[in-house]
Amino acid sequence: MAENLAKFCAGCGYPITLMMLNKTLEKLDLQKRAVLGLDIGCALLAWNFLPINTFQTHHGRVAPTMMGFKRARNNSICFALVGDGGAYAIGLQSLIHAAKRDEPITVIVANNTVYGMTGGQTAPTTLCGQVTPTSPKGNIEEPFHGPEMLKGVIKDGAFLARTAVNEPKQLQEFLQKAIETQQAGHFSLVEVLSFCPTNWKTNGVDTINKLNGLKDIFELGIL
Amino acid sequence: MLEKEKQFLTGHEIVIKACLDAEADVMYGYPITPTCEILSGWSNIGKQYLQTEDEIAAGFAVCGAVLAGKKAFTASAGPGHILLQDAFSMAEAMRLPFVMVIGQRGGPSSGTVIYSQQEVTLACYGGNGEGYRLVYSPSNAKELYELTRQAFNDAWHYRFPAVLLTDGYLLKTKSVFNLAEITKMVNIPAHALVPEDKVVHWPNIYTLEEELNEEINETKKDFSAISEEISKAESYKTDGIEYLVIAHGIVGAVAKMAVDELREKNIKVGLFRPITLRPFSKKQLDDLFVKNNIKNVVVVESSFGQLARIVRDELAPEIDATFTYIQKPGLGIEVEEIVEFMKKLKI
User: Fold this and answer.
1) Predicted complex ipTM exceeds 0.95
2) pLDDT of B120-142, one tens digit each?
3) Chain pair A-B, CB pairs under 8 angstroms
4) Terminus of chain A with fewer CB atoms < 10 Å: N or C?
């Protein structure tokens, strides 16, 4: 199904999200109309992964780029794939306004609580007490809940949800709903709790346990 | 209704007209003086537009639109121009036909709001790359129109991002705009860079240093290949000169009047006025030194040497020229100042 071999780290959650996205597009027969914009961060590695139009943008800038694309080509199905840092830190201003304007694009946020590509630094989603290279004594802040915050600015018909890479059925269901939302002309965002064993420094069992533990802090479901 | 041949228009209105005539589809922008009237003007003519949350979003929305095959542009100045360089560097890397109109204002920082020539370096070399972008510097209303059209055409034809680099004086001045005097131009059509009928996988970040190096070399080759064709400059009264004034934009127009006055006083002075700052009409400048025995070059600009640095860099190294400067960052320059300066220089 994938075009090229994944260049993601072993055990990364991104390929699961991407494969589910592709499966959903296949099911809806929308691969040809799909356009996948990538933020910079681990998302960039997906540039030749799926058999759909894909390009890289800049860190934090994928949402406005896809907004420009969608407004220029109405019949395209536009995705902005972005990490938690790109979405909720450097790109937050654009994300809020894209949601507020009800831009008909689908933002897929991989939330693994760290900046993966640069070595696991503190992200807006990092848990309180979590140790990272930039929070050596543990993060002193509470994590940021992106979809919950956007809930306050979206218009009727928009779709906000959170799921996890080990909830494939729900992930696919939410992606489909997000696409349908875009087709109906509204903004959609799916946050996907994802794992990063490289930066979490976890083995297989601990990786799954940690991911499941995140679900207590970041509630799954439609908002 | 037939369009009147002669109209009394502001620079802003001329830019809007040029963008319309270039068949631009959409503008993304954020209000900043002195280019607000381009955004508000474009917002009132029934074309697609969006006032974004900042210039960053405006710039990346332009990138998205051109990727999808629409002629898109933005307009900004000073601090907004700085933010636009983020998207503009992506446009440089991906060779996107991104067009931006910059109304230079004083800097650094928020500076002043109407006029300067201090965004030359930013426009030409503002990214973290090599400056492979097209930069046009109009000196009057006619050029403002023609070069805006040219910027769209060259951007889409050669796939380089383009800057129409002007200032608030030219944009806010109302003057007679005569359609009959405009050079006729055929539009280069837009095309989808991300096509609908095949799959494109398009990176702008590279794993291997060699890959990036190869890409930049390719871009350099393409830029050099079109440089002679699209670079433009005006050499004015440059036969038998001893002195050469170099100036661009509206200072170029002022310098032209100064040359006329000095010629009446039998001072052998001419003007070289770059119309494109990138690429630069290198050969045309070098030739002036080959054909004339130029004693002194006077670079006149409303900045501390942003144009002069380009001139010195572009001039063939074997040409031995003496440089003097009139440099007034953030200030307009008048004909009399140049005339007086040249008279003293001659003595």
Assistant:
1) yes
2) 999 999 999 999 999 999 999 99
3) 118
4) N
